[in-house]
């Protein structure tokens, strides 16, 4: 009986920590994606890459905590923004970062 209680308590704690990880990382991913867009629109491809990379780290952590189709799409676009930005194409990076932002914002909406 005690083992069942301990097991259930452990599962509850782990489930809560994964939800916490998602709730912390997704807003950070959105914040850095916005910064990537701002700097990319100013023509600063290296700074776009920096913020998109940080956003990618947070989006991947969120995805690891809870799988979400929109987070996956956001990750795909962040990777593309980084690749394009590394080539010096700030405008192309912005296009992908905006697509990533759209998906990350959809992923952050409360589940119904």
Account of the 3D structure:
The chain is mainly α and 112 residues long. The protein has a single domain (20-108), classed as IL-4 antagonist (De novo design) like domain (Four Helix Bundle (Hemerythrin (Met), subunit A)). Helix content is 88%, strand content 0%. The longest helix is centred in the N-terminal third of the chain and has 40 residues, at 2-41. The termini are far apart. Mean pLDDT is 87; it is low at 15-21.
Tell me the β content. Answer: under 5%
CATH superfamily: IL-4 antagonist (De novo design) like domain
How far apart are the termini? 35 Å
- Count, helices: 4
Task: Please give the CATH class.
Answer: Mainly Alpha
Domain tally: 1
The number of E-state strands comes to 0
Low-pLDDT regions: 15-21
State the CATH topology: Four Helix Bundle (Hemerythrin (Met), subunit A)
Q: Work out the oligomeric state of the chains in this entry.
A: single chain
Order of helices and strands: HHHH
Major sheet description: none
**Radius of gyration over C-alpha positions, nearest whole angstrom:** 17 Å
So what's the overall shape?
elongated
Structural class based on helices, strands and sheet pairing: mainly alpha
Helical fraction equals over 70%
Q: What CATH architecture label applies?
A: Up-down Bundle
Kindly report the average pLDDT value.
Answer: 87
